[in-house]
Amino acid sequence: MNHQAPSPRILLKRLRELMAEPLEPQDRLDRIVGQIADNMVAAVCSVYVLRADSVLELYATQGLKRDAVHLASLRMGQGLVGTIAASARPLNLSDAQSHPAFRYLPETGEEIYHSFMGVPILRAGRTLGVLVVQNTDEHAYSEEEVEALQTAAMLLAELIASGDLKKITRPGMELDLMRSVSLSGDAYGEGIALGHAVLHEPRIMINNLVNEDSDAEIARLRAAMEKLRFSIDELLQRNDVSSEGEHREVLETYRMFAHDRGWVRRLEEAIMLGLTAEGAVEKVQSDTKARMIRLTDPFMRDRMHDLDDLANRLLRQLTGHAVDTDGENFPEDAVVVARVMGPAELLDYPREKLRGLVLEEGAATSHVIIVARAMGIPVIGQATGVAAQVENGDAVIVDGDDGEVHVRPLDAVITAYEEKLRLRARRQEQFRALRSVDPVSADGVRVKLMMNAGLLVDLPQLDDSGAEGIGLFRTELQFMIASRMPKAAEQESFYRQVLDHAGNRPVTFRTLDIGSDKMVSYFRSQEEENPAMGWRAIRLALDRPYLLRMQLRALMKASAGETLRVMVPMVSEVGEIREARALMAKEVQHMARFGHRVPRRIELGAMLEVPALLYEIDELMAEVDFVSVGSNDLYQFFMAIDRGNARVSDRYDTISKPFLRMLRDIVRAGERNNVPVTLCGEYASKPISALALFAIGYRSVSMSATAIGPVKAMLLGLDISAVSNVVNAALDDPSNLTPMRALLERFASEHNIPL
């Protein structure tokens, strides 16, 4: 047989026409394989589709026996077709039957065919099936023929992903693309959500794969590449990316890939085969991802994610597509799925429609997770590979209690979780019944249970949770969600709304804490090697006193005639508190000079987050009205752990002797100096860690609103005197090697304390 080089452009155009015709699914598939066979001058063309049970079923053929359609099948890894699916790589053989993986299927009648070429049908690097051509003679297919078949496979991937093949799938069978998937991650925010997936950076859906003018498409590609490179260079120069983790390193990698000549050459070669620029990006990236997806090396898998993100950025440049966070198609029960994101990006989504958050990365103390918990939604991090498994609109169950994500769940799983939700609702009703109950332990010790907040949407939880006030109001969130610096009048109005909602309940405002991973787009800062310990919080505010003075003025006007409680974050030495107090005094004088009412009383506090303050703790107590322990950063600096690095953030137990001893020293210093001490980090949000805090002397804690019910339920049955004796004895006894967590769990079990 004379094998002439196929024309990919003609083939793609004809296949696109078939895709657009009003045909039944089986008829469409039959005509597609016929068209491919004609164009490739092949005696056989067959399509195998991957089912949910990891079996590749023959869905259409020209040349093999028609009776074999929907009957012939091979398991993943079995035979030549199964080998292609498992490896996600083409197989080009002049004599297929001599290959060790060859498996004869008598129902197909394929024994007369020798030459064989098969390519995986890929979408986002995921194998959906296999496309095969065969001939009777021994023939080695050319690279051009392999490329032509791969481009045809792209259109078949689009057809499979459309869901149209459901109509011809045998009863009881399901395609792999639609199968139920369950993934495990780390539970960072309690709760259960049943909703529909919203990919934070969704894959761009390409509607036009076939080009009319290759030269014009290459010009489009090169123009988009220039814009992409410029945007990455601009981000690196401005350093204003708000995201978790080592975003600078990621962008440096992006820049390297964006200038890689080999990548650009492969894109241009795909265009010359007849693809549009968008189709070329999809093809090259899908091929690359298929090769890399099975790698176990963490470094190489990270590079795979980098390439994925870069390809999406290039597609956005080509299509002008922007992420829609509040469009008409946004579901009422949205579960946001992302590889990684910053707190400001989460806040872009409509709060009333947000039901859960699933991240491939993230750590318990990263700010996006803290914000999500403040919103009261279940959160799961470290759900590896979830973004590749989810399509926009997929049904998703987020189990923030056990760290499970169920994508396209089975009916039995949905039923089980609906029952779990009913049980949880009854438990929440029990917690709501405790809202008006005073937080007093079984042995009569009164404890203040406050809540953390930072947005107006948080304020209804003040009433719902029964919190006695707001122990930490994160003022920076107002700045992070704004596209420009909030004006003084806007800040004043915002703070007044907070105070009005709180009524006679105290609110402690933390002054602006930006820097590190909490950057704002309109505030430029220089690149830092270690931003968590760099120019941030009070350090930034004292160097730019206008920012702090404007905020203090807004706070004073909002609380005129009342008590104003302000605390300063990231204090490293007592001199910084003295400087902050001096600025506050200047603002009081300024307001009085111009006839403005001032607060009746101003209480200034320091957040204790830097361990160095422990060595001048008494001097600090002499300068402040209260101290608030910021347990997240304090633990990070005390244990030398990057709280945004999941590899180490969970390495050490927060309920450990060294950390508890330090926390005890702080509260004892407060007692010694008659200065109130509160702990306002996420540490208090778990009943077991709150139990430890009560044992070592803390009588005021602030936590996420959803944690108040469980912590209060624990407190009401607790004999604080008894647990204090046990915990303090263990802390003082170097020979006691029992882990503190195990000791507390045993105490709770023996005394029927709910944890």
From TrEMBL:
GO terms for molecular function: kinase activity; metal ion binding; phosphoenolpyruvate-protein phosphotransferase activity. It catalyses: L-histidyl-[protein] + phosphoenolpyruvate = N(pros)-phospho-L-histidyl-[protein] + pyruvate. It is found in: Cytoplasm. Residues 24-170 form the GAF domain. The keyword tRNA-binding does not apply. One of its GO terms (cellular component) is cytoplasm. This is phosphoenolpyruvate--protein phosphotransferase.
